[in-house]
Amino acid sequence: MTLFRRARLRPVTAASLSSPRSELGHFLRTRRARLRPSDVGLPEGARRRTPGLRREEVAQLAGVGVSWYTWLEQGRDIQVSEALLERLSSALRLDAAERSYLFELAQGRSPRPVAATPPIVSPLLARTIEAHRHPATVSTMRWDVVAMNGPALKLWGDQRGTNALRNIFLGKVPPLATAEHEAHARNLVARFRSEAARASAHEQFQEIADELRARSPEFRRLWTQHDLYAEPEGTKIVDIPGTGRIELAHVTLMHIEPDARTLRVLFYSPVGPESEQRMARALAER
């Protein structure tokens, strides 16, 4: 007696599988649903019927039209550039594997590899900042962090290869003490505007400014005020977890590397005995 009938196998065709564009739309929806507005620097607003960001919020963060982004989530066969995919990847906070998957679905290829190591500073400059017993950092003129000494790495973590403006305005590093954040952010934007006006590679500054205006309401507000900043030194208060507030004096020096790059070197020093003691304790505990 035959108890089981052999199943009739159907050939697998392209029509029986989800198309890459349909899968792309589903992937974008799931990535959008997992983010809260506060994760990307947006206000929470009223209670939401569904979790996650709205389509118009993702479009705003990525600097694209709402209709265009809606069509992409719907799986329509529309043109998608590499630059646009990079902006979507950043807006949706994709990790390396998710970024690669996004490119595979949208363009059938892997993305260009991200540089694994940041630019290297000259040995002389590296020794100079390491000789400073308090934090010191080195960045490009558009605030790409290229070097940090030991104390800076201990206090703030490894930020080499990141952009200081993105770190501050997109919440990628812990903010400064609340009382100082507004003044620090205002000065940072004013200095960035001043340096962008003098830069020969203006488009590199414009790229950062356009991204932050689209993604950070705070940066957008400060940018429209057109403040300029030229002071090379000052003080600020930072809040170190487990240690408390430390008042730091900072001085900025411009350094020309052997390869003709102009770099910004920031040296920090604690102000007063209390900040000195807290700094020593914070460094000893890390």
Largest sheet: 5 strands, antiparallel
Mean pLDDT: 81
Order of helices and strands: HHHHHHEEHHHHHEEEH
Shape: elongated
Structurally, how many domains make up the residues? 2
- The CATH topology label of the largest domain is Beta-Lactamase
GO molecular function: DNA binding
InterPro entries: Cro/C1-type_HTH, Lambda_DNA-bd_dom_sf, MLTR_LBD
Pfam families: HTH_31, MLTR_LBD
Protein name: Transcriptional regulator, XRE family
Description:
- The protein is an alpha+beta fold and 286 residues long.
- The protein has two domains: 16-107, lambda repressor-like DNA-binding domains (434 Repressor (Amino-terminal Domain), Orthogonal Bundle); 123-284, 2-Layer Sandwich (Beta-Lactamase), CATH 3.30.450.180.
- 45% of the residues lie in helices and 13% in strands.
- The protein contains twelve helices and five strands.
- It has helices at 20-33, 55-62, 66-73, 82-91, 96-107, 123-131, 150-156, 164-169, 178-198, 202-215, 217-223, 272-284, and strands at 136-139, 145-148, 233-240, 244-256, 262-270.
